[in-house]
Amino acid sequence: MENHRGEKIIDALKNTGPVTTYDEDGQINNGFGKAHGDQILSPAQERNLKLRMDLRILPFLSILYLLAFLDRVNIGNASVFNLPQDLKLKNVQFNTALTIFFVPYILFEIPSNIILRRVKPNVWLASCMFLFGLDTTMQGLVKNYGGLLTTRFFLGLLETGIFPGCFYIIGMWYTRSEAQRRFTFFFGSTSLAGAFGGLLASAIGKMSGLRGYSGWRWIFILEGVLTCVVAFALFFVLPTFPEEAKWITEEERAFIEAKQRREQGDSAVHRPIVLKDIVRVFTDYKIILGGFMYLGLIVAAYGYAYFSPTIIRSYGYSPIQTQLHSVPPYAAAFVLSMIIAYLSDKARHRFLFAMFPTLLAIAGFAILLTVHTRRNVQYAALFLVAMGTFSAMPVIICWFNMNLGGHHRRSVGVAWQIGFGNIGGIIATYSFVAKDQPRYKKGYSIGIAFVCLSAVASILYFFACRAQNNRRDRATTDLGLSDYEKSELGDMSPDYRYLL
Description:
Elements: H1 2-14, E1 21-22, E2 28-29, H2 43-80, H3 83-86, H4 93-100, H5 102-107, H6 109-118, H7 121-139, H8 145-159, H9 162-173, H10 176-187, H11 189-204, H12 215-234, H13 250-264, H14 275-281, H15 285-313, H16 319-325, H17 327-347, H18 351-370, H19 375-402, H20 407-421, H21 423-429, H22 441-474, H23 483-489
Antiparallel strand pairs: 1-2
Helix pairs in contact: 1-23, 2-7, 2-9, 2-10, 2-11, 2-12, 2-15, 4-8, 4-21, 6-20, 7-8, 7-12, 9-20, 10-17, 10-19, 11-16, 11-17, 15-16, 15-19, 15-20, 15-21, 15-22, 17-19, 18-19, 18-22
């Protein structure tokens, strides 16, 4: 029986399925159909459910990731207040301290998501949050380069599961047509963290000398303590998966699961992920493209997040003015990202809404490469880089990961894209070195090159998805796969259609 089932799954991977049909919402009906016991809510009941989902899921995950990203990149703000000088850092030691964060952050992405399926999300995520908040506080007490390296390493280890875990949870509650605005709101916490971090740093920096501590130490200490306090509160309110949530009725639970099943099939949530599942995911070349789509933007994003305070400082601003001038580009990035997300969801299209902000980022880097003596123009170019990069990233991530069907493919796919993409963080940390200031020609060149790489990977991914959709539309072979077999295939099922 198992051999026969395996043969049919292999045939499905080679073949494609029936002619595309559409459901009542105008979305592609992926052919999974409504399972026995599916529930239907009235429009008013569905709106009420979505509102409660938005209020119970998005704010808390956004706060979690805002503080995680703030603790990760506040070292850029701290550097303006003489961190390198106080710790006597030489040559590229500061860059190495940034790099060490990404070693555990990359290596433990997939294991962390597997743990998330075995431990309740509120327990796992809140525990990680408290620990990386404590680590950030300790970062404010280090005495030398070795101490800084140690705390940055453990910060990367403790933050490794936060982003893919949060996105994984969002993907289990919302369908593809609902996800972009929600995910962008969540991801927008990175932009808000940049803006919030600049404002906080400008205020905390004035505490320099208090109790003998420099301003950069107070940035780490106070922001770390804030994270620890919030972690206690989030333990009680962080969302879990629909099948485990206690704040929805059984009818609502069945409705959510039915919508997910119609879109991506039975999620196979009750079967644990095994090595064979992971290997099967990587036989799909689109998975590799998804990693490069994110990698290219990560180089630009972390290059901006870590070094924009130093770049702005090179324009002649004081430390406090530098922190304040770092706020507006992030704020503009948040606004543009929400506009793009709204339009993308309305159009039920991702590709063009990913390419437009990508082109903005390319234009910003091009200006920074060619203009060196006009401060206002250079500052405006930073707006383009921030707006383009931080607006394209949520579209890229949501497009790729919401196209993955089933718990197993999505869990592994999310961790892969984020883990592989964050190799770009290592590249970014060595892109801007002290000897290249104030023009940073190498850093800007690396930034524009990798954004172009992301654009090329996105184009290839778009055509790959469109080709598979067309191939499945043309095929007429009915392989007679069971619901179990379709759930095992996920988005590789012949009935599945990718969002373009």
